[in-house]
Amino acid sequence: MSQGPADAGVAVVAHYQATAGHGDQVAALLGRHTAATRAEPGCREFVALRGTADPDSFTLYERYESRGALESHLASAHYAAIAVAQIRPLLADRTVEFCEIIPEDCGVAEEAG
């Protein structure tokens, strides 16, 4: 069964650039944050990636079952205690993009020819 736009969920892609030399500390905190986030009922997926060329660079891919589940995550105690209070002060840069998930069958016809 394919998912429609209403039940496809919401995704977040975040890019973190740790202050030079703080990559190991950010990675350790992200490990704790990842475990806590994956335990949330509305979390479908949470993956923290560390750059191989730049060990102070991180990408997070998060997927939630709904906008409400994302909002619950952002209001959680572990988000405030780990992501906001401990990780953000170690970052030189942070960008966050909120995305809609494209369902497998989004109703777009293939072009002929």
What does this 3D model show about the protein?
With 113 residues, the chain is α+β, with helices and mostly antiparallel strands. The protein has a single domain (8-100), classed as Alpha-Beta Plaits (2-Layer Sandwich). It has three helices and four strands. A four-stranded antiparallel sheet has the order 2-3-1-4. The radius of gyration is 16 Å and the shape is globular.
What topology, given as strand order, has the largest sheet?
2-3-1-4
Helix/strand class: alpha+beta
User: How much is the radius of gyration in Å?
Assistant: 16 Å
Beta-strand residue fraction: 25-35%
Please state the overall shape, judged from the principal axes of the Cα atoms. Answer: globular
Biggest β-sheet, characterized?
Answer: 4 strands, antiparallel
Mean pLDDT: 90
* CATH top level label: Alpha Beta
CATH topology type = Alpha-Beta Plaits
What structural keywords apply?
single chain; 113 residues; Alpha-Beta Plaits; 4-stranded antiparallel sheet; 3 helices; 4 strands; globular
Topology:
Layout: E1 10-18, H1 23-38, E2 43-50, E3 57-64, H2 67-74, H3 77-87, E4 91-100
Antiparallel strand pairs: 1-3, 1-4, 2-3
Short recap of the structure:
With 113 residues, the protein is α+β, with helices and mostly antiparallel strands.
